[in-house]
Structure formats: C-alpha cells, structure tokens
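hey
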C-alpha cells in the first residue's frame, strides 16, 4: 500500500557561528494513510525538526542537505508523489499543502495563538486561505469545528481571546485550527505537554475520535511513552537525529531490541515496579556535590520543631470582571479554600490535583508572590517561627531562602542562563560571594540551578515538561544537593 508520506534519508543541519550542527542524520520512515505513527525520543533528538521539515517552516539557519519527503495527496490519487523538499518553502504549491493537506498542532498553544485576535478569527483564517468560502460561511464552519472539538459554548468561544481560555481549551482551539480544513495528515507536536492527566486524556481521545471521523493520518511527536502506548499503532524511536528502532506498537513495547530503547523504557514509571525501586536515568548527571551543599552551619537546635513549613487555613479569592458592554461589577472566584498542611525536615510532600485546583496559587502564596486573604504561612527558621505572610519589604528578602519554584518558562530569553543563576545569589540577604563556586557550577543548569545554588529549605519542583529520561535524574536532584532541606 502506498504510504501517505514517505521520508527517505532526510538530513537537516543548523548553521551556527562555529560550524554546522547535524540535527537529522539520514532518517527514513513512512506514515501510512489513516494510521497513527508516534515519533519518540528525548528532547533534542530531532523530532520537531522533522515536523518543521514536513511543513517547510524550518528556521532561517536550518538547511536541508539531503533526502526526500514524498507526499501522496489522497485528493489527487492519479498524480505522482510530491517531493516537499524540492518545493519552495514560500511557493504557492507548498502554501496550499501547508495548512490545507498537512496541519500541525504546536507544543505551546499560548505562544502559538495570537493574543490580539479572537479564536474565531484565527481558526476561520485557515478556511479563508484554503477554501473558497465567504466570511459568513467561514464563521459557520468555524463554530461547527469548535463544537466538534468539545467547546461547551462554541459561539462564546468564537468571540473569546486565547488568554480567556484555560490550558485545555486553548489546546482545543489549536486542534480546531489544524483540523478545520480537513487535512490528510495531522502533526501533533507534544499536544499534551504540561496538561494534567484528565485534560491530557480528553485531548488524546478527542484526536482519536476526530481521526476516525475525518479518516486522517496522525504523526504524534512525544517523549511520553504512556501517550504512545495509548494512541499509536506504529512507533519510530529517535536519538541524536538518528532512528534507533521502528516497528509496530507490540514489537516496540513487547520486544525492544536496541539498548537505547531498553534504557528509555526503564527510565519511565511502570505498574510492576517493586517497593523502593527507583527510576533508572539513561545517563547519570555527575556533579561535585560538595560545591552544591549548603554552607556549614550549626546543628539543628535540640528540641526545636521539625516542621520546616506550616500552612494553616490558607484562603485566596480572585475577582473576575463581568464581561459584556453593559455588564458591571465582578464575580468572586475561590481559588484556595481553607487548606492546611505541614512540610517536615527531610520530607518530600506532593501537592497533586487537576489544572485550576489551586496548586500554583498555593505555591505563590508560600513564596509571597500572592497575598492570601486569610491564613498563615509559617517558616521554621531554626526553631524560630516566622510568619511569611506578615513580612514586608526588606524583612522578606533577609529571610534565608525558604522556597524555590522550578519553572523553566520563567527563564529570560534574552539573558544567559548563568546570569539568571547569579541574580539569585546576589539577592538581598544572599551576597554574591556567599557561594562563589555555585555560580560556576550552575552555569550548565536551568532555572532550578539558580535556586538550588541558594540551598533552599523547601524547593517546589514540578516536572511537567521534561522528557521521561530527564525526570529520573531531575527529581531527586535538590534533595541530593541539600540533604537537610
């Protein structure tokens, strides 16, 4: 059977200041019509580069140095396959295929959707570009697609802006934009990254239902092997721009052959894990732990309470302005409702829940980024209780670092990573020469390195986005560095 897309010996490189980086090295695989193929690999393995090549939206410093991407258009079965690599990226033929026959769901909907245009304008634009229809017809088709992807009020969603939607609804808007022209191939580039498990299951089921209804093929790009096991029929495993192994779903999970694939499977959680068994990272991160330990300090006072953090009756309400030209006043939204818990020395406490349940709001109140309506946040400063919620000005910054919110998205895109790390070391109450070695060591880290350099007593460490092989080495890191936190 003729495949929908046949990728043959594809090679892509990126031109950088001191040479070229080979991102894709002779990759070959086929995407059958109407089936789901999962492209699996760690971050940096070349998965997204392949999707960008299919769409011909590679960055300016990228160069296709070899290979073919043959596309057999189901709408034109008598025509010869079209080599997408040979087409001009901005040519008329490629613009007809891109968005019309091949569509993509990008990884970050908030950065992919325009904040200045309504959802209806952005979804309907694809219809006006690829289909011969009027604006009223485009609106009707757009509202129908919004209904199809599960918006509870499609008419309201058509008028809404992306920032007014939750993470799950923004992803549904991206899906409706990709599918409104009924493409032959849908490329889903990490469509469920950073979504909670319930929303993730809804999005995956939605894609599967739409695939069955529209008869399209799906290229699922992911590092989550759990997603692969649920949705894929064929799997291609990549590493450093090369294909390590490919085959059917049962072959990949039931009889892995390549050592890399075996290591990848061992790095993710399994149902048959034994008590006390830890995940095995693909590669250990070797560190000089002595450089990352907190400075020498006196032993914990005898008889002092071992509760490092005490949360009591914490409550937070947000005011949401009523919408509409004639609407007045606001509606109160209760985000955190009278919660209490303790975090003891050496303890790892998991705060779990769906999107919108108040986890992040709670962490922000602990860090005094938000002021609670009521309740207390008490930090145990070596036996002396300190009410963080009551601190103001310099007193808050003079407190020893009590928390660290590890969010990679908080890194500044225009600032080198080591500058962001040094910023935390220079904060009030944390002079620059306090930990001179940590600045050098943390230059190779991420946002977590900056706070870890300050040896926080209660690091807040989510791992929503990293690849599964990274989580096994990232999760225990703060506790290895600071055993007394």
């Amino acid at each position: 059977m003729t495949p929908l897309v046949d990728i043959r010996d594809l090679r892509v490189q990126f031109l950088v200041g001191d040479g070229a980086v080979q991102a894709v090295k002779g990759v070959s695989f086929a995407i059958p019509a109407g089936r789901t193929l999962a492209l699996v690999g760690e971050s940096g393995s070349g998965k997204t580069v392949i999707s960008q090549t299919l769409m011909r939206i590679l960055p300016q410093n990228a160069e296709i140095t070899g290979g073919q991407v043959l596309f057999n258009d189901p709408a034109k079965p008598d025509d010869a396959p079209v080599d997408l690599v040979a087409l001009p990226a901005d040519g008329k033929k490629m613009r007809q295929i891109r968005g019309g026959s091949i569509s993509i769901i990008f990884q970050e909907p908030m950065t992919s959707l325009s904040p200045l245009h309504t959802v209806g304008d952005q979804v309907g634009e694809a219809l006006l570009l690829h289909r011969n229809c009027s604006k009223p017809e485009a609106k009707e088709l757009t509202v129908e697609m919004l209904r199809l992807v599960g918006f509870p009020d499609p008419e309201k969603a058509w008028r809404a802006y992306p920032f007014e939607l939750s993470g799950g609804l923004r992803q549904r808007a991206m899906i409706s934009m990709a599918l409104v022209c009924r493409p032959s191939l849908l490329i889903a580039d990490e469509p469920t990254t950073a979504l909670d498990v319930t929303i993730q299951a809804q999005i995956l089921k939605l894609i599967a239902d739409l695939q069955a209804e529209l008869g399209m093929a799906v290229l699922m790009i992911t590092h989550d092997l759990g997603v692969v096991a649920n949705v894929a029929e064929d799997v291609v495993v990549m590493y450093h721009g090369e294909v390590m192994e490919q085959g059917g779903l049962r072959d990949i999970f039931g009889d892995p052959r390549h050592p890399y694939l075996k290591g990848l499977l061992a790095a993710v959680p399994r149902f048959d894990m034994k008590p006390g068994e830890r995940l095995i990272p693909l590669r250990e991160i070797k560190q000089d732990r002595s450089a990352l330990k907190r400075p020498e300090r006196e032993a914990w006072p005898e008889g002092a309470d071992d509760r490092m953090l005490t949360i009591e009756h914490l409550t937070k309400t947000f005011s949401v302005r009523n919408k509409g030209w004639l609407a007045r006043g606001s509606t109160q939204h209760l985000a955190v409702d009278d919660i209490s818990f303790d975090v003891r020395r050496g303890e790892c406490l998991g705060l779990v829940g769906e999107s919108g349940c108040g986890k992040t709001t709670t962490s922000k109140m602990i860090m005094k980024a938000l002021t609670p309506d009521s309740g207390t946040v008490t930090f145990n400063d070596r036996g002396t209780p300190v009410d963080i919620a009551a601190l103001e000005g310099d007193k808050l910054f003079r407190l020893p670092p009590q928390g660290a919110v590890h969010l990679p998205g908080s890194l500044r895109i225009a600032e080198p990573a080591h500058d962001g790390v040094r910023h935390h070391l220079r904060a009030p109450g944390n002079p620059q020469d306090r930990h001179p070695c940590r600045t050098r060591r943390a230059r190779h880290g991420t946002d977590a390195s900056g706070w870890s350099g300050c040896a926080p007593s209660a690091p807040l460490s989510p791992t929503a986005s990293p690849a599964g092989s990274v989580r096994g080495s990232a999760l225990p890191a703060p506790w290895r560095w600071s055993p007394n936190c």
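The CA atoms of residues 170 and 192 lie 11 Å apart. The chain has 19 helices and 16 strands.
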